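Input:
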Amino acid sequence: MKRERLEHNFYIRDVLDVAPEMPGKSLVRQFDNGSLYRYTILEVEAYRGKEDLACHASKGRTNRTEVMYHAGGKIYVYLIYGMYWMLNFVTGEQDTPQAVLIRAVEGFDGPGKLTRGLQIDSSFYGEDLATSKRIWLEHATEKFDIVRTKRIGIDYAGEPWINKPWRFVGTRQ
DNA sequence: GTAAGGATTGGC
DNA sequence: CCAATCCTTACT
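Output:
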């Protein structure tokens, strides 16, 4: 079994090309105590550009959204409801603010539970997935089928954004 | 400076 | 159904 880290070229593509390829890939986390775990990604959502009213970049380029304007391959984390950190991977070329929200991995079903379980917080903001020593992605070793649905929890964005089928759920083939 | 609200979760 | 909890954003 080949374990190969995903490089920048994987992320520097349109988020709608990257996101459907995420389920099945391994999210690798090396903890401070040296232990290393691999988690298969099961569910993600795509947030695409300043026109997408569900994407935080639609509010403009701010301190919080800054990293989404960078070239793909970095981590975007933010706090929601005062208690949950959301884990996102920036995609696309520089100045195309996009990100993939990781909603579930095997063992942790839900974006808040996932970051709690993997001990991911604000210190991961801007981390480079191609060079980090504590978090990265590796190529998939199994084939997954993808089901597309609407994104969760973004009713405020209105039409047409609430109906975009930009949630990608993977199931083993 | 102040206020409103959220890419969620779990408990009633 | 609804509170928890605090950071980001938009202003009376």
